[in-house]
Specification:
By secondary structure, this protein is an all-alpha fold. It has one domain. Helix 4 packs antiparallel against helix 7. The longest helix has 27 residues. It is globular, with a radius of gyration of 22 Å.
């Protein structure tokens, strides 16, 4: 009696370059979800390595900004805070803003920072910027715990509007990913894009009602000011948690539609860039 020792056939993976405006390959991203978890864990673990305060910087950074804004705009400039203490008025806006800013900034530089991995191993490149936005979301959750403590200290009780908060968080994350996909694709060819991102985000912050109330913007220019997607996010947070801003209106619908288009086109452009990314980086 003989036993067959013929090797079993193994699945074959064929890697082909994309042609034209290829599909997004979302199924590949799902199949490589374990890699996404690994990148997320590695970034969270390695970002604060060899730092005295370590992960505490996740909480310290927005608190420092809150103190500075409260002193400059609340104490010195005496800007209105719509009837709530200036520190929590600012901190509520800082959380979604930093979620967006960190996600967009890190995803814009993600391909260049991971070029040593991209050149050696195949995997859907979309996993890289996606992991940076998810990492920014983890930081957001940690900072949100401080916000809960501040609301208890100031005796602020949210209304039913707090149930809409995930909508504004999703819009902030989608905006970060959309901006990051476009900038990451451009940064592959033009490395100075990564430098310009810092200046652009700083300017964008002062065009968003983070450190001040949107009511300070002249009425004649307010319609243009509200085209900013982060306006809907920040004002949505204040409405949902503090009840200070006006309820969501057409600006939220416009922002959601605009960000959706920006995200889809950015994903396709990012996918198209994958054809030559190894040769360029």
């Amino acid at each position: 009696m003989s036993v067959s020792t013929a090797p079993q056939s193994l699945p074959t993976v064929v890697i082909q370059p994309t042609r034209g405006w290829a599909s997004l390959g979302l199924r590949d991203v799902w199949e490589y979800r374990e890699l996404l978890y690994f990148l997320l864990w590695r970034e969270a673990k390695g970002r604060y390595r060899q730092m005295a305060f370590g992960p505490l910087w996740i909480i310290i950074a927005p608190l420092i900004q809150m103190v500075i804004f409260s002193f400059v705009f609340g104490t010195l400039a005496r800007l209105p805070s719509e009837g709530v203490p200036y520190p929590i008025f600012t901190y509520v806006a800082l959380l979604p803003w930093q979620f967006f800013a960190n996600g967009a900034r890190n995803s814009a530089a993600s391909l260049l920072s991971q070029q040593h991995v991209i050149a050696k191993v195949y995997f859907p490149r979309l996993v890289i910027p996606l992991s940076t936005v998810l990492s920014a979301f983890v930081d957001f959750l940690a900072s949100f715990v401080v916000l809960i403590g501040m609301m208890v200290a100031y005796r602020i009780t949210p209304t039913w509007a707090v149930l809409t908060l995930p909508l504004f968080v999703l819009l902030a994350g989608a905006t970060a990913l959309a901006v990051g996909l476009w900038l990451a694709s451009l940064a592959v060819k033009y490395h100075d894009v990564s430098i310009a991102v810092g200046f652009g985000i700083t300017i964008w912050q002062y065009l968003t009602p983070v450190a001040y109330s949107a009511t300070l913007v002249p009425e004649a220019w307010r319609w243009l000011y509200r085209l900013n997607p982060l306006y809907a996010v920040v004002e949505g947070f204040r409405w949902a948690l503090l009840g200070t801003a006006a309820p969501p209106d057409w600006s939220l619908v416009f922002s959601a539609g605009f960000v959706t288009v920006l995200l889809v086109t950015g994903a396709f452009y990012f996918r198209r860039t994958e054809r030559t990314i190894v040769d360029v980086v």
